[in-house]
Write a structure and sequence with these properties.
Length: 796
């Protein structure tokens, strides 16, 4: 892909530096990135990373028609696929530039502390904190991705001892511990905390002396210099040192004993293994530790305290234990380095590419959104009007949406959790599929739950126009302890209004059955993309939302309106006492309060799949060795990976139906099945699946790199392992909790094919592989769910 990266400006700043370093990381994994903007100090970093730079015209008031026109011309001339604007002015210019171009998409990243309300709702949005992601999704944005400010771990390394010694000598740093802050010295967001640190440096000059190293420049520096003079007054040596802006601040990070900072600067300090005190506003200071890490991962590397008057006292309370205890500094520094691995720029680059691919695939949906464009234009006009009035009154903030951070607002709060009913009361379960459909997560899980609790299963809405809709009575019992209620039958039920009516009717059906039989649910579980928790909110019992996939991202795959799916999900999340997700990635995406969602992964039918005496399927004619795929073949599958495996000469067995929406992709799949060494067996009964798994030497999970796949948990991977087969997967869907000895992942088609070849030669022990997933059966998943339902005070 070709990507045009447009930072807000190219002077030193966290968002701009992230844009440039992430562009270089995306280039390193095989794509082409061009940086577009006005010249600034970061052009040196662009040159250092070997990126192409194209200078922007002067914008004037933003968004600028001149800039948008220049971007549009560049997109046409260079064949750009995606224009990526960082912060709101370049994002709006990217939207203006790409709107008339059918083969280009626009993406926006906001690393500020809040998102401008006039950014178009259709625009794919990347944000830097989980809390902002939650707020924006709740406000109706459908394509929101969390990429916490990435850290280039290869670049952010300590220089040699000689360079550190020279730096210390240059700035007069002595034997005292160094507390360093690398920051812009500006009023909004930054100045308050730095002034508090200067005050504390003076207060502790005798009791616990340290040197405060301030790296950076800005309009607040004169005030800070005056405060430093007061702090050092009457003492023979300086406690506060200003270096000004450093083009390369790595030596400052390496010199520090303790770091003080927020946002990207705070994260970069972790790469140097330094203990960190996170700075915020209104007196917020808190030390990073194992106990506080999740707080920062939720709200970002920032916080809001009780009031400015508390700032110096709060910082002193956090700082004194670190100054007094070198061992504590060493311990917290080691944790910092451990934690920052999750923020590596390589991981962020792969996630960013998935955003680009999804945006380009959905580019047609970005065009001609007239109402959205009008709403954005109106909101932008209101923003400039309010800003003009504030400027006249002398109240205008200098740092835009950093001045009104999301972390300081109150958005989504969890209500008091509802108590679970008695164990003999039924669980009301709204699945994503009907009982007669493929026996996936819902049916397997409910079957196991029913061994301990009665379950009422309510089929989702179905259309009589759909082929092969079975005729079943309104109430049946497909298994002991399970009652199945037939859902509403509504023509064309994928249309939002008709589907809403059908969903309401499903809720009515369930509640009518409960009333007729004098039953009270102990819990209501919604594993559906419909807002069933909202439609049953008056029922007693604990409310559980279980996301077995990212239902909003699945909209294109299912042919269902994404706005309906997004609205339905938010309605369920508002009602839920307990939020469960099939992957940790999806659990974080669905988190709407500071309380974490929980991870309930898929399981496997071990009793069926783990039998060692299964006979091979008689219709498989491929010679060994054989690599195989089971499941549906649709847009989730990366066909280039399978083509690479076929090229190795290893037999390729494909088991399952094909359901590609694109005729071109369907033809690519058909061409693959005609190649030598490839056999395609269409849909087979689930009971026959072990016979086909027995033919395979290695199981394949060839998922394409999309955000939907990144948030999914591939059931097929567990099934391969349960059958005693090692797995090779693309490094997209999670493999968390699986034994790395038997699951290998690759980031390219060539690497994938090479791993398949290695796995075939390795000949892993079938029994050891089966033992690695011994606790991954559906009974253990059901026990975990019931344990959570029985907890006191469960909340999302």
């Amino acid at each position: 892909m070709k990507i045009l990266v447009c930072p807000h400006d190219l002077d030193l700043g966290g968002s701009q530096l992230n844009a440039i370093e992430l562009a270089a990381a995306v280039t390193a994994i095989g794509h082409e990135c061009i940086v577009f903007g006005r010249r600034g100090t970061l052009c040196a970093r662009i040159d250092e990373l070997g990126l192409e730079f194209v200078e922007s015209p002067e914008p004037g008031r933003r968004p600028s028609q001149n800039v948008a026109r220049a971007i549009r011309e560049l997109v046409v001339e260079r064949g750009i696929d995606v224009v990526h604007g960082y912060e709101w002015p370049p994002a709006l210019e990217a939207a203006l530039a790409t709107e008339p171009l059918p083969d280009a998409a626009a993406v926006c990243t906001v690393m500020s502390m809040a998102v401008a309300p006039f950014l178009p709702k259709w625009m794919p949005l990347v944000v830097g904190t989980q809390q902002i992601s939650a707020v924006e999704q709740a406000r109706g944005r459908l394509a929101v991705t969390l990429i916490e400010p990435p850290v280039d771990l290869a670049h952010n390394t300590a220089p040699g001892d000689a360079e550190i010694a020279a730096f210390r000598a240059r700035w007069g740093l002595d034997e005292r511990p160094v507390v360093a802050c690398v920051s812009r010295l500006v009023p909004d967001l930054k100045a308050e905390g730095i002034l508090a640190a200067i005050e504390v440096a003076g207060e502790l000059a005798d009791a616990l002396p340290f040197q405060l190293l301030i790296v950076g420049d800005g309009s607040s520096r004169p005030d800070m210099v005056k405060a430093a003079a007061r702090a050092d007054a009457g003492r023979g040596r300086r406690s506060v040192v200003f270096t000004g802006e450093l083009a390369d601040p790595r030596v400052a990070y390496a010199t520090a004993d303790i770091m003080l900072g927020m946002g990207g600067s705070a994260l970069r300090s972790l790469a140097f293994g330094k203990p960190l005190i996170v700075q915020g506003e209104h007196g917020f200071f808190r030390t990073l530790s194992r106990q506080t890490a999740e707080v920062f991962r939720w709200q970002g590397w920032y916080g809001v305290g009780e009031g400015r008057a508390d700032g110096a006292g709060r910082l002193r309370a956090e700082l004194e234990p670190l100054l007094a205890d070198e061992d504590l500094r060493r311990e917290l520094g080691a944790f910092s380095r451990e934690l920052v691995e999750d923020f590596s720029i390589t991981k962020a680059a792969h996630r960013q590419v998935a955003v680009y691919r999804d945006a380009w695939a959905a580019r047609a949906d970005q065009k001609r959104r007239f109402l959205s464009a009008a709403a954005s234009a109106g909101a932008l006009g209101g923003y400039y009007l309010r800003r003009g009035v504030a400027r006249r009154l002398g109240r205008a903030p200098t740092d835009d949406f950093n001045a009104v951070p999301v972390a300081g607002e109150r958005h989504v709060t969890a209500g008091a959790p509802r108590a679970a009913g008695a164990a003999h009361d039924p669980i009301l379960y709204f699945p994503g599929v009907a009982w007669d459909d493929v026996a996936g997560t819902d049916r397997q899980l409910v079957t196991e739950i029913s061994r301990q609790r009665p379950v009422i299963w309510v089929d989702p809405t179905q259309s009589p126009l759909r082929r092969r809709v079975p005729s079943v009575p309104a109430v049946t019992s497909p298994r002991p302890n399970i009652v199945r209620l037939r859902g509403a039958i509504v023509p064309a039920n994928q249309r939002p209004v008709l589907r809403w009516i059908a969903d309401v009717w499903c809720g009515v059906i369930a509640q009518a059955y409960l009333r007729r039989n004098g039953l009270t649910p102990s819990a209501v579980v919604c594993a559906s993309s419909s807002p069933m928790l909202a439609h049953t909110r008056r029922l007693p019992g604990r409310k559980v939302y279980y996301a077995t996939d990212d239902f909003v991202e699945a909209g294109a795959l299912w042919g269902v309106d994404r706005r309906y799916l997004g609205t339905a999900r938010e309605a369920n999340l508002r009602e839920a006492d307990l939020v469960l997700a099939v992957t940790p990635e999806l659990a974080r995406h669905l988190q709407r309060t500071s309380r974490a969602s929980r991870w309930l992964p898929n399981g496997a039918d071990l009793d069926v799949l783990a039998r060692p005496d299964v006979e091979r399927a008689q219709d498989v004619r491929l010679p060994s060795p054989i690599a195989g795929v089971v499941g549906q073949f649709n847009s989730r599958v990366d066909l280039s990976v399978l083509q690479a495996v076929q090229g190795t000469g290893i037999g390729l067995l494909l088991v399952g139906p094909q359901r590609f929406h694109s005729s071109d992709t369907a033809e690519r799949f058909a061409a693959l099945t005609r190649l030598p060494g490839v056999q395609w067996v269409t849909a087979v009964p689930r009971d026959d699946l072990p016979a086909y798994l027995a033919c395979m030497d290695v199981g394949l999970t060839p998922y394409a790199d999309t955000m939907f796949n990144r948030r999914s948990y591939p059931l097929k991977t567990i099934e391969y392992l349960a059958a005693g087969r090692p797995v090779v997967a693309t490094d997209v869907a999670t493999t968390e909790g699986l034994d790395a000895r038997f699951v290998s992942t690759a980031g390219s088609a060539e690497a994938f094919a090479s791993l398949v070849h290695e796995r075939v030669r390795a000949r892993s022990d079938d029994r050891e592989i089966r033992r690695s997933v011994a606790d991954a059966g559906w009974p253990s998943r059901a026990r975990q769910l019931l344990a959570w339902l029985d907890e006191e005070g469960t909340a999302p």
